[in-house]
Amino acid sequence: GEAATMFRHRRALAALVVAALAASASAFVPSLHSPLNAARLSAASAPRGLLPGRVGASLATGLPLRAGRAHVGPMMQSAGAVTPENPLKVIVAGGGVGGMFLAKALQKKGIEVEVLEKTNKFARFGGPIQLASNALATIKGIDENLFDRVMKKFTFTGTRTNGIKDGIRTQWYTKFNAISDMADYFTLPYTGVIDRPDLQELLLDEIGGDDTVRRDAEVVKYEQLPGCEGVRATLKDGTQVTGDVLVGSDGIWSAIRAQMWDQDSRGPKSGTTYSGYTCFAGDTIQRTDYYFDVGYQVYIGPGKYFVTSDVGRGRTQWYAFLALPEGSKSRASNKDYLYELFNDGPEGRWSEEVFKVLDATPDDQIDQRDLFDRPPSVLRSWSDGHVTMIGDAVHPMMPNLGQGGCQAIEDAYVLAEKMGGVTDRSQIQGTLSSFYRERLPRTAICQGLSRLASDLIVSAFDTPYQPASQDDRFGPLGGPLSINSIFTALLRPFMGAIFYAQFGYLYTFHPKKCTKEEIEVLVDEVMTRHRVDAEAVWERVGLTGKDEQAENREGSGLSFR
Ligand SMILES: Cc1cc2nc3c(=O)[nH]c(=O)nc-3n(C[C@H](O)[C@H](O)[C@H](O)COP(=O)(O)OP(=O)(O)OC[C@H]3O[C@@H](n4cnc5c(N)ncnc54)[C@H](O)[C@@H]3O)c2cc1C
């Protein structure tokens, strides 16, 4: 009887080991198929037999040793063991939102980081970026001190009225109460905005400045090294940099993605296509009756929409989204062009609130940018051997949800958490695979929702139909009498539920919550500073007549990216 029990136990144990190995191996299936990885595996066969048994086999194949890790004692420490004397080194290609947060998160795990950034200096450029509650809870999860520093430069919009307005009638169509209600439900900090240059400077300081970031360092290719030696990145000037892992956080025109997926980094063979939409953006200092009560407003109407958001320091950022052919950029005056478009719809001139921000924005402060995106990469691995990707490099999305940067921050957090658990370099390949498998569904949903939102709002939404009793400009039947207008009116009662579902889903990712008391203190501090700053800027502009934003952006060219 005892022998039979032992046999059953052994069989169960063996089954468990086989299941664990199969599960680990399955994590590699897509990357094993890549030609580069096949080459790496054959190159890696050289060390087979140098180390005994499973350790040697693991080094040779790159398969993890999870099931047998307990057997590798100090006497048999693998050559790839991660120790304080031999820590992991991660090369991060691209010092944008994702790359900088990743650098900070990895450093917190005791991992060495080198950021290779294509541009030669961190000029203060780029407009404000919205960080939603999920991203703020992630930043808090990465580092409490970093979160506190972000809050010192932050403006909450989620505490105020936000929503969609009828762009012609200037009436609320629906309000996004879900933004604050869902943040309250999960006890998360409220959504808000921060200037990209402020965020960039702060992160640069947090990760050790020039000691960590190499500028003028455009990565042009990478090469997997045999066994657990890692990966080598080559820069445009021929310099080579080696590390255990290379992370492509090099944005929508990623060179890392181009090599991994054998595509061009941009153009018709890149897989990144023009979305059909272009976006104008500008910001201006303006004082409105509702400045302190309203966060952001989306004005809808025929064939286009307009967004304004308070971005702190008395300023309003705005975007105009239009369906135009690619490369429609050259024209004498963006301001005149927009003025004409928004002045002359079939139902008449758009809201005076739209014209107020347009009027107050100098022409040379208005930029246009064509918007590109990619379908979710569901069937392709984001990881190849010791290389993986985060952010726009692998899941660029339309800006309508304001989640592109937020998802890059979530990627950074998850990747760092997983890398922090690596005790031997033979686990790297499996770790990178499990990272992308975890991130793929959520980022794909965000990509899909963002795309759906832009298609709906530009192509399906219109001025909502109203009966003549509410709007008599269209005759006895009311109007406008288009399918889109009727659709927009019919959808209205469901909008609240749709947004509760959307924000509820987005905020389910929250590595570190706040307490209710913390949130109260934060809101008080941030919004008191917000009021004082805005009034000071308005007074100053009134005194000098100068545009503060123009001074900040000297020589930068772009106001957003
Ligand atoms: C109009 C607009 C508004 C948006 N608003 C929001 C918002 O409110 N909230 C939000 O969360 N997201 C927003 N986004 C999306 C957000 O900007 C991006 O998702 C985010 O910047 C992605 O971060 P990233 O680090 O992946 O890429 P990026 O921020 O693009 O950074 C990539 C970096 O890599 C560098 N680089 C490029 N190639 C190389 C190379 N070969 N070697 C080395 N370095 C390289 C670049 O110079 C750059 O610094 C918006 C986007 C647009 C277009």
TrEMBL record:
Domain FAD-binding per the UniProt entry, residue ranges: 89-442
GO terms of molecular function: FAD binding; oxidoreductase activity
InterPro entries (alphabetical): FAD-bd (IPR002938), FAD/NAD-bd_sf (IPR036188)
One Pfam family named in its UniProt record: FAD_binding_3
Gene3D superfamilies per UniProt: FAD/NAD(P)-binding domain (3.50.50.60)
Keyword ATP-binding applies: no
Keywords, in A-Z order: FAD, Flavoprotein, Oxidoreductase, Signal
Protein name: FAD-binding domain-containing protein
